[in-house]
Protein backbone atom coordinates (compact mmCIF):
# COMPACT_ATOMS: atom_id res chain seq x y z
CA UNK A 1 0.00 0.00 0.00
CA UNK A 2 1.35 3.42 -0.99
CA UNK A 3 3.03 5.34 1.74
CA UNK A 4 3.01 2.57 4.32
CA UNK A 5 6.23 1.61 6.01
CA UNK A 6 4.53 -1.54 7.23
CA UNK A 7 3.58 -3.50 4.12
CA UNK A 8 2.05 -6.40 6.06
CA UNK A 9 -1.68 -6.24 5.67
CA UNK A 10 -3.40 -8.61 8.06
CA UNK A 11 -6.02 -11.02 6.73
CA UNK A 12 -9.44 -10.88 8.42
CA UNK A 13 -9.99 -13.19 11.38
CA UNK A 14 -9.98 -16.84 10.26
CA UNK A 15 -13.03 -17.70 12.40
CA UNK A 16 -15.07 -14.85 11.04
CA UNK A 17 -16.72 -16.24 7.87
CA UNK A 18 -16.12 -19.92 8.51
CA UNK A 19 -17.88 -20.28 11.82
CA UNK A 20 -20.33 -17.42 11.87
CA UNK A 21 -22.08 -16.96 8.57
CA UNK A 22 -24.89 -15.14 10.35
CA UNK A 23 -22.73 -12.28 11.56
CA UNK A 24 -24.62 -9.60 13.51
CA UNK A 25 -23.07 -6.15 13.94
CA UNK A 26 -24.35 -5.62 17.45
CA UNK A 27 -23.53 -1.91 17.84
CA UNK A 28 -24.99 -1.08 14.40
CA UNK A 29 -28.09 -3.13 15.21
CA UNK A 30 -28.17 -5.14 11.98
CA UNK A 31 -26.50 -8.17 10.46
CA UNK A 32 -26.16 -10.27 7.33
CA UNK A 33 -29.54 -11.87 8.03
CA UNK A 34 -31.50 -8.72 8.80
CA UNK A 35 -30.69 -6.40 5.86
CA UNK A 36 -29.27 -6.73 2.33
CA UNK A 37 -25.79 -5.39 3.14
CA UNK A 38 -24.30 -5.66 -0.41
CA UNK A 39 -27.32 -3.85 -1.93
CA UNK A 40 -27.15 -0.98 0.58
CA UNK A 41 -23.39 -0.62 1.16
CA UNK A 42 -21.80 -2.36 -1.87
CA UNK A 43 -20.91 0.88 -3.71
CA UNK A 44 -19.10 2.47 -0.73
CA UNK A 45 -15.72 4.03 -1.51
CA UNK A 46 -15.21 6.30 1.50
CA UNK A 47 -16.05 5.89 5.17
CA UNK A 48 -15.96 9.28 6.88
CA UNK A 49 -16.01 9.20 10.64
CA UNK A 50 -15.79 11.42 13.72
CA UNK A 51 -17.11 11.56 17.24
CA UNK A 52 -20.46 13.29 17.29
CA UNK A 53 -23.68 11.76 15.90
CA UNK A 54 -25.23 15.20 15.27
CA UNK A 55 -22.19 16.45 13.38
CA UNK A 56 -22.15 13.38 11.17
CA UNK A 57 -25.83 13.71 10.31
CA UNK A 58 -25.11 17.33 9.38
CA UNK A 59 -22.06 16.40 7.29
CA UNK A 60 -24.11 13.78 5.40
CA UNK A 61 -26.86 16.33 4.76
CA UNK A 62 -24.38 19.00 3.64
CA UNK A 63 -22.69 16.50 1.31
CA UNK A 64 -26.05 15.45 -0.17
CA UNK A 65 -27.01 19.07 -0.77
CA UNK A 66 -23.69 19.96 -2.34
CA UNK A 67 -23.58 16.95 -4.67
CA UNK A 68 -27.30 16.65 -5.34
CA UNK A 69 -27.19 13.06 -4.13
CA UNK A 70 -29.93 11.67 -1.87
CA UNK A 71 -29.05 11.32 1.80
CA UNK A 72 -30.22 8.04 3.35
CA UNK A 73 -32.13 7.86 6.58
CA UNK A 74 -30.08 6.85 9.62
CA UNK A 75 -29.24 3.26 8.64
CA UNK A 76 -28.10 2.26 12.11
CA UNK A 77 -30.59 0.17 14.05
CA UNK A 78 -28.97 0.81 17.42
CA UNK A 79 -28.60 4.03 19.38
CA UNK A 80 -24.83 3.63 19.75
CA UNK A 81 -23.85 4.98 16.36
CA UNK A 82 -25.47 6.76 13.42
CA UNK A 83 -24.85 5.71 9.81
CA UNK A 84 -25.80 7.84 6.82
CA UNK A 85 -25.04 7.11 3.21
CA UNK A 86 -24.71 9.59 0.34
CA UNK A 87 -23.77 7.66 -2.82
CA UNK A 88 -20.25 6.25 -2.34
CA UNK A 89 -19.73 7.91 1.06
CA UNK A 90 -20.75 6.46 4.43
CA UNK A 91 -20.88 8.84 7.39
CA UNK A 92 -20.55 7.03 10.71
CA UNK A 93 -19.89 8.58 14.11
CA UNK A 94 -17.52 6.84 16.52
CA UNK A 95 -18.12 8.40 19.93
CA UNK A 96 -15.33 9.64 22.19
CA UNK A 97 -12.03 7.85 22.78
CA UNK A 98 -10.38 4.72 21.43
CA UNK A 99 -12.60 2.05 23.07
CA UNK A 100 -15.70 3.40 21.34
CA UNK A 101 -13.82 4.02 18.08
CA UNK A 102 -12.39 0.47 18.05
CA UNK A 103 -15.89 -1.02 18.17
CA UNK A 104 -17.09 1.23 15.37
CA UNK A 105 -14.04 0.40 13.22
CA UNK A 106 -14.29 -3.37 13.68
CA UNK A 107 -17.99 -3.32 12.78
CA UNK A 108 -17.33 -0.97 9.83
CA UNK A 109 -14.57 -3.26 8.53
CA UNK A 110 -16.95 -6.24 8.83
CA UNK A 111 -19.67 -4.17 7.15
CA UNK A 112 -17.36 -3.43 4.21
CA UNK A 113 -16.36 -7.10 4.05
CA UNK A 114 -19.98 -8.31 3.97
CA UNK A 115 -20.82 -5.62 1.40
CA UNK A 116 -18.02 -6.86 -0.87
CA UNK A 117 -16.22 -3.49 -0.81
CA UNK A 118 -12.56 -4.10 -1.58
CA UNK A 119 -10.50 -1.03 -0.68
CA UNK A 120 -12.51 1.57 1.21
CA UNK A 121 -10.70 4.73 2.27
CA UNK A 122 -11.26 5.78 5.88
CA UNK A 123 -11.06 9.44 6.90
CA UNK A 124 -11.49 10.76 10.43
CA UNK A 125 -12.84 14.33 10.45
CA UNK A 126 -12.62 15.72 13.94
CA UNK A 127 -11.83 18.47 16.39
CA UNK A 128 -8.70 18.85 18.49
CA UNK A 129 -6.64 21.13 20.68
CA UNK A 130 -3.80 22.87 18.83
CA UNK A 131 -0.20 22.74 20.05
CA UNK A 132 1.33 26.03 18.95
CA UNK A 133 -1.03 26.48 16.00
CA UNK A 134 -3.80 29.09 15.82
CA UNK A 135 -7.43 28.06 16.40
CA UNK A 136 -9.17 27.03 13.20
CA UNK A 137 -6.10 25.33 11.70
CA UNK A 138 -6.89 22.03 10.02
CA UNK A 139 -4.19 19.52 10.96
CA UNK A 140 -3.71 16.64 8.53
CA UNK A 141 -1.83 14.13 10.67
CA UNK A 142 1.54 12.74 9.63
CA UNK A 143 1.43 10.18 12.44
CA UNK A 144 -0.20 9.39 15.76
CA UNK A 145 1.56 9.43 19.12
CA UNK A 146 0.17 7.69 22.22
CA UNK A 147 -0.06 9.06 25.77
CA UNK A 148 3.47 7.73 26.48
CA UNK A 149 4.67 9.68 23.44
CA UNK A 150 5.51 6.67 21.31
CA UNK A 151 4.16 6.18 17.78
CA UNK A 152 2.30 2.98 18.60
CA UNK A 153 -1.19 1.85 19.54
CA UNK A 154 -1.11 -0.35 22.64
CA UNK A 155 -3.67 -3.13 23.00
CA UNK A 156 -3.77 -5.46 25.99
CA UNK A 157 -4.85 -8.90 24.85
CA UNK A 158 -4.84 -11.91 27.20
CA UNK A 159 -2.95 -9.82 29.73
CA UNK A 160 -0.17 -8.98 27.27
CA UNK A 161 0.83 -5.60 25.90
CA UNK A 162 0.76 -5.57 22.11
CA UNK A 163 2.20 -2.55 20.35
CA UNK A 164 1.18 -1.84 16.78
CA UNK A 165 2.38 0.82 14.32
CA UNK A 166 0.31 3.93 13.66
CA UNK A 167 1.21 4.86 10.09
CA UNK A 168 -1.11 6.88 7.89
CA UNK A 169 -1.18 7.00 4.10
CA UNK A 170 1.22 9.67 2.84
CA UNK A 171 -0.25 9.84 -0.68
CA UNK A 172 -3.71 10.51 0.68
CA UNK A 173 -2.32 13.10 3.11
CA UNK A 174 -0.49 14.97 0.37
CA UNK A 175 -3.59 14.98 -1.85
CA UNK A 176 -5.71 16.33 1.02
CA UNK A 177 -3.17 19.05 1.77
CA UNK A 178 -3.10 20.09 -1.89
CA UNK A 179 -6.90 20.39 -1.90
CA UNK A 180 -6.77 22.42 1.33
CA UNK A 181 -4.33 24.85 -0.27
CA UNK A 182 -6.48 25.15 -3.36
CA UNK A 183 -9.55 25.89 -1.23
CA UNK A 184 -7.71 28.41 0.98
CA UNK A 185 -8.31 26.34 4.10
CA UNK A 186 -5.57 26.87 6.72
CA UNK A 187 -3.89 23.44 6.69
CA UNK A 188 -0.84 22.24 8.65
CA UNK A 189 0.72 18.83 8.84
CA UNK A 190 2.19 17.34 11.99
CA UNK A 191 1.89 14.55 14.49
CA UNK A 192 -1.26 14.11 16.55
CA UNK A 193 -1.20 13.17 20.23
CA UNK A 194 -3.90 10.65 21.10
CA UNK A 195 -4.65 11.34 24.77
CA UNK A 196 -6.48 8.88 27.03
CA UNK A 197 -8.75 11.57 28.40
CA UNK A 198 -9.73 15.18 27.83
CA UNK A 199 -8.50 16.71 31.09
CA UNK A 200 -5.43 15.33 32.93
CA UNK A 201 -4.28 13.29 29.90
CA UNK A 202 -4.09 16.57 27.94
CA UNK A 203 -2.62 18.42 30.95
CA UNK A 204 -5.50 20.83 31.25
CA UNK A 205 -5.69 23.07 34.29
CA UNK A 206 -9.49 23.21 34.19
CA UNK A 207 -10.44 19.66 35.19
CA UNK A 208 -11.89 18.64 38.56
CA UNK A 209 -8.55 17.07 39.53
CA UNK A 210 -5.15 18.60 38.92
CA UNK A 211 -2.11 17.43 40.87
CA UNK A 212 0.51 19.12 38.66
CA UNK A 213 1.61 22.74 38.36
CA UNK A 214 0.96 25.16 35.50
CA UNK A 215 4.66 25.11 34.61
CA UNK A 216 4.51 21.32 34.00
CA UNK A 217 1.63 21.80 31.61
CA UNK A 218 3.68 24.24 29.53
CA UNK A 219 6.78 22.00 29.73
CA UNK A 220 4.64 19.17 28.35
CA UNK A 221 3.15 21.26 25.54
CA UNK A 222 6.60 22.58 24.59
CA UNK A 223 7.94 19.02 24.57
CA UNK A 224 5.09 17.92 22.31
CA UNK A 225 5.76 20.83 19.97
CA UNK A 226 9.46 19.92 19.79
CA UNK A 227 8.48 16.33 18.91
CA UNK A 228 6.47 17.66 15.96
CA UNK A 229 3.05 17.27 17.57
CA UNK A 230 0.61 19.92 16.30
CA UNK A 231 -2.65 18.80 17.85
CA UNK A 232 -4.25 16.65 20.56
CA UNK A 233 -7.35 14.49 20.30
CA UNK A 234 -8.38 11.07 21.59
CA UNK A 235 -8.64 8.58 18.71
CA UNK A 236 -5.71 8.88 16.28
CA UNK A 237 -3.51 5.92 17.38
CA UNK A 238 -6.35 3.40 17.23
CA UNK A 239 -7.65 4.83 13.95
CA UNK A 240 -4.22 4.73 12.29
CA UNK A 241 -3.34 1.31 13.63
CA UNK A 242 -6.61 -0.45 12.73
CA UNK A 243 -6.81 0.99 9.20
CA UNK A 244 -3.13 0.25 8.60
CA UNK A 245 -3.59 -3.35 9.82
CA UNK A 246 -6.54 -3.82 7.47
CA UNK A 247 -4.62 -2.29 4.56
CA UNK A 248 -7.07 0.56 4.06
CA UNK A 249 -5.77 4.00 3.10
CA UNK A 250 -6.63 6.45 5.84
CA UNK A 251 -6.19 10.04 6.96
CA UNK A 252 -6.93 12.15 10.02
CA UNK A 253 -8.16 15.68 9.40
CA UNK A 254 -8.91 17.61 12.59
CA UNK A 255 -9.59 21.28 13.09
CA UNK A 256 -8.05 22.89 16.18
CA UNK A 257 -10.61 24.60 18.40
CA UNK A 258 -8.03 26.44 20.48
CA UNK A 259 -4.28 26.83 20.88
CA UNK A 260 -3.48 25.00 24.11
CA UNK A 261 -0.52 27.37 24.66
CA UNK A 262 -3.18 30.06 25.24
CA UNK A 263 -5.71 28.21 27.39
CA UNK A 264 -7.72 25.10 28.18
CA UNK A 265 -11.39 26.03 28.09
CA UNK A 266 -13.25 25.41 24.86
CA UNK A 267 -15.65 28.30 24.70
CA UNK A 268 -16.25 29.46 21.17
CA UNK A 269 -19.17 31.52 19.85
CA UNK A 270 -21.64 29.20 18.09
CA UNK A 271 -21.17 30.72 14.63
CA UNK A 272 -17.39 30.42 14.93
CA UNK A 273 -17.68 26.82 16.16
CA UNK A 274 -19.84 25.86 13.15
CA UNK A 275 -17.39 27.54 10.79
CA UNK A 276 -14.49 25.59 12.37
CA UNK A 277 -16.46 22.30 12.22
CA UNK A 278 -17.15 22.97 8.57
CA UNK A 279 -13.46 23.19 7.61
CA UNK A 280 -12.55 19.45 7.74
CA UNK A 281 -15.84 18.77 5.93
CA UNK A 282 -15.09 21.28 3.16
CA UNK A 283 -11.61 19.88 2.67
CA UNK A 284 -12.60 16.21 2.64
CA UNK A 285 -15.68 16.81 0.49
CA UNK A 286 -13.61 18.69 -2.10
CA UNK A 287 -11.12 15.82 -2.14
CA UNK A 288 -13.83 13.14 -2.54
CA UNK A 289 -15.50 15.13 -5.31
CA UNK A 290 -12.17 15.54 -7.09
CA UNK A 291 -11.49 11.78 -6.88
CA UNK A 292 -14.97 10.55 -7.81
CA UNK A 293 -16.16 13.28 -10.13
CA UNK A 294 -19.46 13.60 -8.26
O1 LIG B 1 -14.03 13.87 16.43
P1 LIG B 1 -14.27 14.61 17.66
O2 LIG B 1 -14.38 16.07 17.46
O3 LIG B 1 -15.50 14.10 18.38
O4 LIG B 1 -13.02 14.26 18.61
C1 LIG B 1 -12.43 14.99 19.64
C2 LIG B 1 -11.63 14.03 20.51
C3 LIG B 1 -12.61 13.60 21.59
O5 LIG B 1 -13.30 12.44 21.22
C4 LIG B 1 -13.56 14.76 21.70
C5 LIG B 1 -13.31 15.56 22.97
O6 LIG B 1 -14.06 16.76 23.00
O7 LIG B 1 -13.34 15.61 20.56
O1 LIG C 1 -8.56 20.32 23.30
C1 LIG C 1 -9.21 19.47 22.72
C2 LIG C 1 -10.26 19.82 21.81
C3 LIG C 1 -10.95 18.81 21.21
N1 LIG C 1 -10.66 17.52 21.49
C4 LIG C 1 -9.69 17.18 22.36
O2 LIG C 1 -9.46 15.99 22.61
N2 LIG C 1 -8.98 18.18 22.93
UniProtKB/TrEMBL annotation:
Cross-referenced Gene3D superfamilies: Nucleoside phosphorylase domain
Nucleoside phosphorylase domain sequence ranges: 45-289
Signal peptide residue numbers: none
InterPro entries hit by this protein: Nucleoside_phosphorylase_d (IPR000845), Nucleoside_phosphorylase_sf (IPR035994), Uridine_phosphorylase_euk (IPR010059)
Swiss-Prot/TrEMBL GO biological process terms: nucleotide catabolic process; uridine catabolic process
Pfam families per the UniProt record, alphabetical: PNP_UDP_1
Binding residues annotated for phosphate, in chain numbering: 80, 124-127
Molecular function via GO: uridine phosphorylase activity
GO cellular component: cytosol
Residues reported to bind substrate: 202, 204
Family as reported in the entry's similarity comment: Belongs to the PNP/UDP phosphorylase family.
Protein name (record): PNP_UDP_1 domain-containing protein
Organism phylogeny: Eukaryota, Metazoa, Ecdysozoa, Nematoda, Chromadorea
